[in-house]
Specification:
The protein is built from four helices and two strands. With about 90 residues, it is mostly helical. It has one domain (about 1-94): Winged helix-like DNA-binding domain superfamily/Winged helix DNA-binding domain (Arc Repressor Mutant, subunit A), CATH 1.10.10.
Length: about 90
């Protein structure tokens, strides 16, 4: 039983890493001034918007433009401040 649980935990971690990589790779392809939404990413990668938000919040790679992800209602949503400045300013200039 313990081995099954351990295997499930390893599988979950592997799937989360794959999801992180897919989301980050997609964000890198966005052009200057382009944005996407948490909902779009969740639907594209068979996840949930909150899971996408958690993944983005944990990002430490300055090359991944997580600030380009906004809420589906047009509001900016969260931003961990990794690059400094405001999320709105970063979207306009990157």
């Amino acid at each position: 039983m313990k081995l099954i649980i351990l295997n499930l935990i390893v599988l979950k971690i592997t799937l989360m890493r794959e999801l992180n990589q897919k989301i980050f790779n997609y964000l890198i392809t966005l052009k200057k001034g382009e944005t996407t939404t948490y909902k779009f990413l969740a639907e594209k990668f068979n996840s949930h918007p909150r899971a996408v938000g958690k993944i983005l919040a944990s990002n430490k790679d300055k090359n991944v433009p997580c600030f380009k992800v906004i809420r589906s209602d047009g509001e900016l949503g969260g931003y961990n401040g990794l690059l400094g400045g405001s999320k709105e300013g970063l979207i306009k200039n990157n």
